[in-house]
Specification:
Heat Shock Protein 90; 4-stranded antiparallel beta sheet; 28% helix; elongated; Sensor histidine kinase; HATPase_C_sf
Length: 88
C-alpha cells in the first residue's frame, strides 16, 4: 500500500499511515493525495494488493474520493493458542 502511495501519489505530498492492533486482527490504512492524471503502471495495483492480503486470510478496501486515495487492509491474527501449538 505504501509503494502504491509513493508511485501514484502527488510527489512530495504527505502519506498518512495508521495501524490498529486488536485481539483478532490488525487494520492497516494508507491515505494519500492522488495525481489527477493516470500513470502507466508496472505493477499489479489494487488487485495485487487485494490478492496479497487475501493470501493471509484478510481483505482490502480501496477507493479514491475527492482527490484522496485510501487503502484499508484487515488482516486476521492467529490465536495465541495456535501460535503456541505451532512452536511446540
Amino acid at each position: 500500500m505504501l509503494t502504491n502511495a509513493l508511485r501514484h501519489g502527488v510527489p512530495g505530498a504527505a502519506i498518512e499511515f495508521r495501524e490498529a492492533w486488536r485481539s483478532g486482527d490488525v487494520v492497516l490504512e494508507v491515505e494519500n493525495q492522488v495525481v489527477a492524471t493516470p500513470t502507466s503502471g508496472g505493477g499489479l495495483g489494487v488487485e495485487g494488493m487485494r490478492s496479497r492480503v487475501a493470501a493471509v486470510g484478510g481483505f482490502l478496501e480501496a477507493e479514491a474520493l475527492d482527490g484522496v486515495f485510501t487503502a484499508r487492509a484487515r488482516i486476521p491474527l492467529p490465536a495465541a493458542n495456535d501460535v503456541l501449538t505451532e512452536d511446540a
